[in-house]
Design a protein that fits this description.
about 160 residues, alpha/beta, two-stranded antiparallel sheet, globular
């Protein structure tokens, strides 16, 4: 896989676009475009409208299904700085399997659900997530844990091995 030629950040956060992302990540990284990749969101007009209302006026929001994102990434692209947001690790695996060139992945928010364990105060994973992560690690995909830009960037896989026994 080749890396995208533009500056792209990929973040896994089940809340997608929210204040923490807009106030810290978008501002600190000078993001000009946000891609939300979600088959679910792309089919929900009300959620699309809500997400559009949360984006600063100088940031472009693009919402794609997984397949649309793969098609878009292979077109000429000139954005200065793009943040890609996905809701879960399954989407990352699907993107990889469809040939999407994955930049380093930041996992910053996966809320608690029964059967999941905490990797930090904002990221919880279950058995299915662990299997996906093992697959991604074997493929050489870099993943970090970092809630906000000022937090220490931890190696996701190391933290996963430490917590998931």
């Amino acid at each position: 896989m080749t890396k995208p030629t533009t500056t792209m950040r990929l973040r896994v956060d089940d809340r997608l676009l929210h204040g923490q992302v807009v106030v810290t990540w978008v501002r600190d990284l000078a993001i000009k475009t946000i891609w939300i990749i979600s088959d679910r969101v792309a089919s929900e007009p009300i959620e699309i409208a809500l997400l559009q209302s949360a984006v600063p006026f100088d940031v472009q929001l693009e919402i794609y299904t997984t397949q649309e994102a793969v098609e878009q990434i292979h077109k000429p692209y000139t954005a200065q700085s793009t943040m890609i947001m996905v809701e879960n690790l399954q989407t990352i695996l699907e993107l990889y399997e469809l040939g999407f060139p994955l930049p380093d992945i930041n996992v910053g928010g996966l809320r608690y659900q029964p059967g999941k364990i905490a990797l930090n105060r904002a990221v919880y994973v279950g058995k299915e997530d662990v299997e996906i992560c093992h697959n991604l690690e074997q493929q050489g995909i870099v993943m970090t844990l970092q809630i906000v830009p000022s937090d220490y960037r931890m190696n996701f896989y190391d933290r996963l091995r430490k917590k998931w026994k």
